[in-house]
UniProtKB/TrEMBL annotation:
Domain Exonuclease stretches: 8-181
Any one biological process term the GO annotation gives: DNA metabolic process
Coiled coil: none
Transmembrane domains' residue ranges: none
Molecular function GO labels: exonuclease activity; nucleic acid binding
CDD domains documented for this protein: DEDDh (cd06127)
Broad EC category: hydrolase
Organism: Sphingomonas aerophila
Protein name per Swiss-Prot or TrEMBL: Exodeoxyribonuclease X
Gene3D superfamilies: Ribonuclease H-like superfamily/Ribonuclease H (3.30.420.10)
Amino acid sequence: MPPPKPQIIRVVDLETTGSAPPAHGVVEIGWQDVALGADGRWELEGEGGQLFVNPGRPIPPITQAVHHILDEQVADAPWWQDVARRVLDPYPRRLALAAHRADFEQQFCSPNLTGGAEWICTWKSALRLWPDSPAFSNQVLRYWRRPQGIVHERGLPAHRAFPDAYVTAFHLRDQLNEASLAQLLEWSRLPGLLPRVRNTGPDRGKDWREISDDSLASFLTDRDPDVRYTAETEIARRRGGGHVGRPSAQELLL
């Protein structure tokens, strides 16, 4: 008997007509798997894939300008409900799903399509593990980190579903080899913990630990949940609990 295939975390990326379903629909899905090897290290698994999806509506020019997918390319493609479940729920091998800025994908990948899968957000995990990065987009992390083994051309063009999933898979691989699966899932359930102030104003670009108590308190009513959460966490750190910044080695083993 051949050995059983390893369990996987499936990285997915969507290209869509916009950011607010059900008014907007999926036009393309790409995926790339990451699996735990016999040596205890996570690595990319298989070749991944890509499928066009008929969104059931015209693709606005403003989003075509991002991903360059044309209406005629998806006119004869299958519908999202006929594609999603078989890509998102490769039972029984899948441990979780992952995406960069996974909150976006989760809007379209509802629990009934994913089989109730848990999600890893590689953006939120990057904030925790690589706070020194100049920015945290998929592509900035790619060129700042230069992940070992990535094939440059296979990750192009950017803003297409498979190349973006492929690049994200290298971030996920390295995150899983630095922290546990349980830890990445825990971070992904929380808002993003921002290493630097990104709002406009005199504190822009500063480490949160550098700003005054009064300035910090002003962020508690910010509209952005990541900003509010980071401010709350920094206040807790100053009062003797919680922290902002790079986690300890013990925390990474959670």
